Amino acid sequence: MSEKNQQIQWVTKNVRLSSLTAYERNPRTITDSQFQKLKNSIEEDGYHSRIKATHDFRVIGGHQRLKALKDLGYEEVEILVPEEEIDDDTFKRVLIRDNHSNGMFDMDMLANDFDLEELREFGIHDVMNIPPMFGEEDQDQSPQPERCAKCPECGTVFTTKGNME
Taking Cα atoms as reference points, which of 91, 45, 93, 92 lies closest to residue 68? Predict the structure, then answer.
C-alpha cells in the first residue's frame, strides 16, 4: 500500500465540546425539523456515532451532532482523531465520505418488517418520500431535487425528493 493510500488509524479522545471548532467550509446543512430529529435520536439512542476531528480539534465529521450535543447540554464527549495528522486533501475526503451514505434501503424488507408509523417515527420518510404525519411537515420547504433509486432485487424504481442520507 502506497503512503498516499495508507489507511487512517483512528483513536478516541475525551474532549470538552467547547474545545471543538466547526470547519468553516462544511458543505453539510440541516433543516430545523431534521435538527430536532437528530436531537431526539441522541436523547433516545445515546451518543454513539462519534465526531471526527483533527489533532487541533477542528471538526471533520459531526458538525450537526456537535450542535445538537451542545443544545442538549453535553459538555464532554468521546471523539475520534487520526493517530497521525492528516493533510488537507485527506481532510476533505474524510469530510465528504463521512457525510455520504453509500447504501440504500431494501424496500420489501421495510414494508414487511416495519410498521409505517414506526418508520415515520424513525424519520425514514425523509429519504423515502413517505408523507409525514399531520403537523410534522418541515418548516424549511425549499425545493428539493428529485432522485431515483432502483431496487437491485425487484427492479422497482422509487422516486424521492431531497437528501438521501
Answer: 45
- What are residue 68's DSSP bridge partners? none
Question: How many domains does the chain contain in total?
Answer: 2
Give the cell for residue 113. 418488517
What is the tens place of the pLDDT at every residue in 79-130? 999 999 999 999 999 999 988 777 777 888 888 888 888 877 777 755 555 5
Same domain, yes or no: 128 and 50: no
Q: Which domain, by its residues, includes 48? A: 3-98
SS3 content of the chain, % helix, strand, coil (to 5): 35, 20, 45
23 shares its domain with 93: yes
89 and 24 co-located in one domain: yes
Whole-prediction pTM: 0.69
